[in-house]
Amino acid sequence: MSGRVLVVDDELQILRALKVILRDAGYEPVAVATAEEALDAAATRPPDAAIVDLVLPDGDGIEVCKQLRAWSEMPILVLSAIGEEEQKVRALEAGADDYVTKPFGARELVARLAAALRRAGRTADEPTIAVDGLELDLARRVVRREGEEVHLTPIEYDLLRVLARNRGRLMTHRALLTEVWGPAYGEDIRTLRTHIANLRHKIEPAGRPRFIRTDPGVGYRFAG
């Protein structure tokens, strides 16, 4: 895995660490300290991915995410301090693909970046998604587990389809509710949790979440 990665953070120590981590992993880091520099660098020579801190001296990472996402499908990871749950959600809704919490481990960061780049390289119109014995035939709206058809309600199927087509990416509660139910249901988290529980009961091994992972207070992601 290789490519140019835009890194945006105003903490010099973290910026240096990120440059070393990315170079050791085979990437070409482009390091900047402000939102303005980030947008200029991205426009001058578009990177393959971006890692953006949420707190910047001339703005915030959320606005950077919005502006990058307005013209690019590049993977965007946000860096977030512990306890900034609402900021994480806002960043994901602004177009970020994932977040890494400070302090972060080098291996986790590289793994999340590599996964985001892999997802970006997949075709969006694949007719079938198969992961560890679970198969979604998107053209026929059929789900099978270990070769046996699983009967899902329309809502359960739509939830699984959205999660699977964004597999590996954290989907916020609001994003799932809006896409499956519509904008008017964006705050109905209790309904979402009920349907996720029912869906898990049908597709997961008993008591062992394999496909649908929970990010507490933020949303869900489909592992694969």
TrEMBL record:
Domain of life: Bacteria
A Pfam match: Response_reg
Domain OmpR/PhoB-type, first and last residues per copy: 126-224
Residue stretches making up the Response regulatory domain: 4-117
Main location: cytoplasm
InterPro entries membership: CheY-like_superfamily (IPR011006), OmpR/PhoB-type_DNA-bd (IPR001867), Sig_transdc_resp-reg_receiver (IPR001789), WalR-like (IPR039420), WH-like_DNA-bd_sf (IPR036388)
Gene Ontology molecular function: cis-regulatory region sequence-specific DNA binding; identical protein binding; phosphorelay response regulator activity
DNA-binding region: 126-224
Subcellular localization(s) per the UniProt record: Cytoplasm
GO BP term, pick one: positive regulation of DNA-templated transcription
Record key words, sorted: Cytoplasm, DNA-binding, Phosphoprotein, Transcription, Transcription regulation, Two-component regulatory system
4-aspartylphosphate: modified positions: 53
Cellular component terms per the entry's GO annotation: cytosol; protein-DNA complex
Residue ranges of the TM segments: none
Protein name, per record: Two component transcriptional regulator, winged helix family
Organism: Conexibacter woesei (strain DSM 14684 / CCUG 47730 / CIP 108061 / JCM 11494 / NBRC 100937 / ID131577)
